Each structure stands twice: as C-alpha cells, then as structure tokens.
C-alpha cells in the first residue's frame, strides 16, 4: 500500500512539474516547433497518376535502406516529369529505428495536409522530410522559415547573455559545417552569467557545402538575435538547417558514425513487384554476410595489434634523439613551454650575410622592439628579418610569444614565419618578404592612395576580415591580436593584405569569451575602451580595431587629428555624426569616385557596428564575414561608438602604448 501511495505521489509530482514548466514556457514540449508547407506553385498531381504512384513508392522505401544508419536520405524515383525527389533528415541523436519512425509520422502528416501538391515540406523537432518534382539535393532552401523564442527571459545582463550565446552558437555552427556528407550536426552546452545553462544545437542537411551550411546557420542566428534579444531560448527551423538554444537539455547523445565508412550510393527504391523477391534474397545473403562479419571482427583486431606492436618495436630500434631549441613563454605569471624544430632555426652568420651586416640601406623600418631589415639568402630567396633590440625591456618575451604563435599559423592573409635565430644575445625572426610595405604607407599618402581604387580597398578589407576570422575561430589556437592597425597590415605584390606583428597577441581558451591583463599594450585610437581602461580584452576588442581600420580605409584619414576648418575631431566621432545626419558620403575618400556607393555605405555601416560602445552588440568576425558576403542581409542599426580617444590626444599623430614602451612605431616591416 505504501508503494502504491509513493508511486501515485511521484506521478502527481511529475505531472505538476510538466504542467508548471509548460505554463512558464520552460518545458521542451511547450517549445516544440514544426513547419508544414504545401507548395502550390510547383503544380499538382491527380490521384492514382504516375506521379502519385512514384511518390507513394518513394515514401514507402525509407525503411528499406538498412545501410543508412546516419539519418540522411537522398532518394529519387521515376522518369521525366513524373520523377520524384525526396530528402529525409533526422537529428544526430536519433538511432535508425527512431529516425524511420519520425519520418513515417511526417509522411502520414504530409499525405493528409498536402493531398495533391507535387512539392511539400514537413519539419519537426527530430526530423525533416521534403519531396518535390525538381532536384533538391545540394540546393539551399531558406523558406519557409519558422522562428520561436522561449518565453522565459534571461536573468542579469542581457548583453552578456547574448554575447555568450553568439560566441557559443558560432562555435557549434563551425563544428556542424565541418561535418562530412553523412552528417552536419553539433550539440553542446555552456554557461552564461548567473550560471544560466545554454544548450545549443545546430544542423544542416549534409548535401550543403561547409560555406553554405555556415551561411544558413549564421543567418538564423542573426534573425533570432534581431527579434528575440533577452529570451533564454530560441528555435529557428528552415528546410536546409536548424538552429536552437535552450536552458533545458532537449537532445540526447549523438549517434556514433563509422569514421571509415563513406555514405553509400543511393539506390532507387524497390518497386512493389520486386519487394518479396528482394526480401528473400536479402535473407539468404544476410546469413553469408553475418558469417563474414564474424570472421572479420576476429581477424582484423588481432592483425592490427600485431602490426602495431611490430611498428612500435621498429620505432624504438631506429629512434635517435633530436636536438631541439626550447623556448619558454611568460606573460602575466603564466608559463607555456613550446618546442621548435631545428628546421626552423637559422644560423646567425647566414642572416648577417643575407642582410649585408644589417646595413642601414636594407632597413625597412624600426619598431618598439627593434629594426626590420630586408635580406637575400644564398638560394636567392628574399626575406624580412626582425632584429630585436638588446635593450628592449620586453624583447625576450615578445620574441618568444611571436615564435609560439607564428610557427603554428598558416593563412594567406597572415605574414608567414620562415624561422628564427637564437644565438648569444641575438634574437631574430625571419619572415617572408612582403614587397609593398604596409597599408598606412598608401591610404595616408596623398599620392600613393590613388593606387588603391575602391575595388582594391574592398578586397583589402575582406582579406583582413578573413585573417582575423582565422585567428579567432579557424586556427589550431584561438588568438586575439590586440594590436590591429594600418601599419601592421602588409601588402604583397598583388596588394593582398597580410596581418603582421603578433608580439602582443594573446592565446585564449576555445570556450573563453573574455580575459583580463594587468599590462595594457597596444595603440590608442585602435584600442577598444574596455581594454584601454579596464584591461578587459576579448575577440570583440579585435572587432573594434577592425572597425576603425575599415573607416580609415574608406576615408583615407587617420583615426585621430582630422581637421574640419578650425575644429579637430577623431574619425569615429566624424563618422557617427555624418551617419546620424544622413551625410555619410562626407567621410568617403574623394579619390574613390569609381566605387560602388552601396558597397562603400555598407562598409561604413559594418564599421560602425564594430565600434559600438556596447561590447555585446558588436558582431563577431563570423557575422561580419556573413555581412560582407550576404548583400541581401539586413544589417542592424548601430548604436553610438565608443570614443576611446580623449580631447587632449586628438592632436597627437604619434602612437604609443599605455605602459610607455612603444609596441610598434608607424613604420613598415
């Protein structure tokens, strides 16, 4: 009797929780979203027609494809105008049985909702079903779209919560987009301020490319953030992708994929007349394949172990100790050991000969940590050598930091590190030679700026954005540059931009959104105010610097000391004032009379979004990349910029660091 009472009490308690959670908008049941659409524009079919028969045959064939255990079906059946195409997709946590069950429910719903339409879409929580009389594989479908925010609101700072959501969901987007042709799916959770849990889920149909998947999901994030800021959850469903975050866990463990099994070629569904024959044949072959699998399951692991032991013994026998140069990096009381292979190390005499004894005629420029020289190796290769000054108080640390970062980074929009030299008190960095010096030598020179028409400037802006995105998201490390400026953007022979000078870059953890430092280093005018004042830096600090760079490229003006008659103001104030007054064309470089006004205005718009005072409102570099590529995407309205330069410093054209040790003077490298 006590057991019965306890069970009844548990049932009542569970029922109460479900009802309460639904009433508060917190339960997964209340948050389910589905999309059904019958497309009348693609034409209709008549009952019992050839198209109707082909459709029924195709939809009934999903369960016959036992070889598909990854939840993605791409099927077609029929000929000519009566051919039917279908796509079925399940979330990555659905096993094969549950996936087929979900698709069967969708099939039943669509046959009732769309009794004679040739194209229809059904999207629900766990699966998606599409069919059409046109090829739909490999095509992005953004409509119909359904957006549902969770009615529960966040606690504490909405801006901080939104920043965490944007960063976390961007990570999941990139993870999903990197999937193969069987699955593009990612889930995971993180914590927002006040220990608010954020469970995220991103998915694309695997027939999309990585770029198409990223764009589909990032557009979904833009839509949900525009409409539903402050909501603790959001759900966006489109035929080609799904995007969802929620405080409650609504997904299960992701089903494991066989890493060595590519998706099989999709065979046409069996016709109804051959079902019985194929069934008996499959049963006969099943016994043979089962025996073969048993033998394989025994022999393959044994052979693998024997082979592995043999290779390990050979490795131990032939292994020779190699000499390595070890460099220990220290900053803010954190130490990180790195080891650099000897193949990267240059002999000092080799560099001395290449630079003609570091002759002044080969000097390209001089920064806070030493001079930069051009040189030519014995094989004819031209190089740039950064020779750290011996009396630099931070030279050793900056040298170690730059080697640590640059040795692991490879991107067309980053200056490539060729090697280094450590000999006595000499510390040298050897880079690829970039012939056209730095961006500031062009855009701030009244003669040379004419060499940069709008098409070239726009490509430079895009290249810088791609380089920063690589640092923030795509590299093996997650890196915040902290000193992005025009003199640190070098231009190669084709005027492609290359980001340089990683002497003060900082490594951060993949899931870390911000960090603090006791030592503020950088350049006024480019530094975000939260970094310059409080030492708080994040990827959004680089976004701020990028926004300033874009305004400088568009206007051809330095960010400080702009004269307008008797008045002197900074570039951010000038851009914001003209933007509010509808006269943004006033800040455009007069030499850009050949450029697209729409592109120029869009760049100013994006730049103002980057330099907003509210850190959370600044876009990520992934969002910025989407803004450049998606001209049809509506941009949010920017808020007032952070005016980081006070009135006393606007007349100063020199650049300096907060701790009085100049990081980089305005000379090219």
From TrEMBL:
A single Gene Ontology CC term: plasma membrane
Amino acid composition bias (Pro residues), ranges on this chain: 260-272
GO-annotated biological processes: immune response; response to oxidative stress; signal transduction
SMART domains listed in its UniProt record: S_TKc
Catalytic activity: L-threonyl-[protein] + ATP = O-phospho-L-threonyl-[protein] + ADP + H(+); L-seryl-[protein] + ATP = O-phospho-L-seryl-[protein] + ADP + H(+)
Membrane-crossing residue ranges in chain numbering: 298-318
Principal location listed in the UniProt entry: membrane
UniProt membrane topology term: Single-pass membrane protein
Domain of life, source organism: Eukaryota
Protein kinase domain ranges (all copies): 358-628
Gene3D superfamilies given in the database record: Gnk2 domain, C-X8-C-X2-C motif (3.30.430.20), Phosphorylase Kinase, domain 1 (3.30.200.20), Transferase(Phosphotransferase) domain 1 (1.10.510.10)
GO MF term set: ATP binding; protein serine/threonine kinase activity
Spans annotated as Disordered: 252-290
Domain Gnk2-homologous: 33-136, 142-250
Annotated Low complexity bias: 273-289
Signal peptide: 1-25
Keywords: ATP-binding, Glycoprotein, Kinase, Membrane, Nucleotide-binding, Phosphoprotein, Receptor, Repeat, Serine/threonine-protein kinase, Signal, Transferase, Transmembrane, Transmembrane helix
Positions annotated to bind ATP: 386
Subcellular location: Membrane
Keyword Transmembrane: yes
This protein's record includes keyword Transferase: yes
Pfam family, one: PK_Tyr_Ser-Thr
Name of the protein in question: Uncharacterized protein
Lineage, highest ranks first: Eukaryota, Viridiplantae, Streptophyta, Embryophyta, Tracheophyta
Gene label: CRK65
């Amino acid at each position: 009797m006590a057991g019965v009472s306890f069970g009844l009490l548990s049932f009542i308690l569970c029922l109460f929780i479900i009802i309460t959670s639904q009433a508060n908008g917190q339960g997964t049941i209340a948050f389910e979203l589905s999309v059904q659409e019958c497309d009348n524009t693609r034409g209709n079919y008549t009952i019992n027609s050839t198209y109707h028969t082909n459709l029924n045959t195709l939809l009934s064939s999903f369960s016959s494809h036992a070889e598909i255990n990854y939840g993605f079906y791409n099927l077609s059946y029929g000929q000519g105008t009566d051919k039917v195409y279908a796509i079925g997709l399940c979330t990555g946590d659905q096993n094969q049985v549950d996936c087929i069950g979900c698709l069967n429910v969708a099939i039943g719903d669509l046959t009732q909702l769309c009794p004679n339409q040739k194209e229809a879409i059904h999207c629900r929580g766990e699966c998606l079903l599409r069919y059409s009389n046109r090829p739909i594989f490999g095509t992005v479908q953004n409509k119909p779209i359904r957006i549902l925010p969770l009615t529960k609101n966040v606690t504490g700072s909405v801006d901080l919560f939104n920043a965490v959501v944007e960063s976390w969901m961007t990570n999941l987007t990139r993870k999903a987009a990197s999937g193969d042709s069987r699955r593009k799916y990612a889930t995971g959770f993180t914590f927002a301020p006040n220990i608010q849990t954020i469970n995220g889920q991103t998915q694309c149909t695997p027939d999309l490319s990585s770029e198409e998947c990223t764009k589909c999901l990032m557009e979904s994030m833009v839509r949900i953030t525009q409409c539903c800021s402050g909501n603790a959850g959001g759900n966006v469903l489109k035929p080609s992708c799904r995007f969802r975050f929620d405080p409650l866990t609504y997904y299960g463990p992701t089903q494991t994929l066989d890493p060595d099994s590519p998706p099989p070629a999709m065979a046409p569904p069996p016709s109804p007349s051959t079902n019985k024959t194929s069934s008996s044949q499959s049963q006969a072959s099943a016994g043979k394949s089962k025996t073969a699998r048993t033998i394989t399951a025994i022999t393959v692991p044994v052979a693998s172990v024997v082979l592995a032991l043999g290779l390990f013994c050979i490795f131990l026998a032939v292994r020779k100790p190699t000499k390595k140069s070890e460099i220990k990096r220290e900053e803010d009381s954190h130490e990180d050991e790195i080891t650099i292979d000897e193949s990267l190390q240059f002999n000092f005499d080799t560099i001395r000969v290449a630079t003609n004894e570091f002759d002044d005629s080969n000097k390209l420029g001089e920064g806070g940590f030493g001079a930069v020289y051009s040189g030519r190796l014995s094989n004819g290769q031209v190089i740039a050598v950064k020779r750290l000054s011996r009396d630099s108080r931070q030279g050793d640390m900056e040298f170690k930091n730059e080697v640590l970062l640059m040795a692991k980074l490879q991107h067309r929009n980053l200056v490539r590190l060729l090697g280094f030299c450590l000999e006595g008190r000499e510390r040298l960095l050897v880079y690829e030679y970039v012939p056209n010096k730095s961006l500031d030598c062009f855009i701030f020179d009244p003669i040379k700026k004419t060499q940069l028409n709008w098409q070239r400037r726009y490509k430079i802006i895009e290249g810088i954005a791609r380089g920063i995105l690589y640092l923030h998201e795509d590299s093996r490390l997650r890196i915040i540059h902290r000193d992005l400026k025009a003199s640190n953007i070098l231009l190669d022979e084709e005027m492609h931009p290359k980001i340089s000078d990683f002497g003060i870059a900082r490594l951060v953890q993949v899931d870390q959104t911000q960090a603090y430092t006791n030592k503020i280093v950088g350049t006024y005018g480019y530094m975000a105010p939260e970094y310059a004042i409080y030492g708080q830096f994040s990827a959004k600090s680089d976004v701020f610097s990028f926004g300033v760079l874009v305004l400088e490229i568009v206007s051809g003006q330095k960010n400080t000391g702009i004269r307008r008659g008797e008045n002197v103001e900074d570039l951010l104030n000038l851009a914001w004032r003209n933007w509010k007054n509808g006269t943004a064309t006033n800040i455009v470089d007069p030499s850009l009379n050949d450029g697209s006004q729409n592109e120029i205005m869009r760049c100013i718009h994006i730049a103002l979004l980057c330099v907003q005072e509210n850190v959370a409102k600044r876009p990520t570099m992934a969002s910025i990349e989407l803004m450049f590529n998606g001209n049809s995407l509506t941009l949010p309205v920017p808020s007032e910029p952070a005016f980081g330069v006070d009135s006393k410093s606007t007349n100063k054209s020199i650049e300096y660091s907060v701790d009085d040790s100049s990081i980089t003077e305005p000379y090219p490298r």
